[in-house]
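Collaborator request, handled under Task 6.
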Amino acid sequence: MHEKSKYYINNLEHFSLVEGGYFKENYRSNEFFQSEYLPARFTTNKNFSTSIYFLLDCDQVSAFHRLKSDEIWHYYDGSSVKIFEIEEDGNLMEFSLGKNLDEGEMFQVVIKRNSWFAAEVTDKNSYCLIGCTVSPGFDYGDFELADRTSLIKQFPQYEEIIKKFTKFKK
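Structure tokens returned to the collaborator:
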């Protein structure tokens, strides 16, 4: 584990995530959208917004998963991160989150709701600390970890990348 990863995990009190990496929720709005005023995909009241610190260390990956809300990733420190997004229409998008703007990296990346997405640290000897903001706010009931077999069946053209970024087979 990278020394700076240990520093952030200890000082930001990170916890392990099922899809990979470490996180610490640092904001959850105390106001709510009432479910009857939200799109039908939401069945419960939702916080206006939530935010976490998220850390990937060295060769960790964030496995394919999706949310019912848009999620904005913000770069903070360390290596850049490569993000893979399979949109609902099957289009594969690749983004580089980082500070090297001349190399096409961006400080923020928006992941569209209902898209499958995964990520990895670009420099396998480093780490990346980012932030993730979700609105309406994150709720575990709106989270789905990808099933390898189902995702390959839906998007056979991306079989290799799906195999790389799926940890679990149901």
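The cover message to the collaborator said: "The chain has one domain: 3-145. The chain has a mean pLDDT of 92. Please let us know whether this matches your experimental observations."
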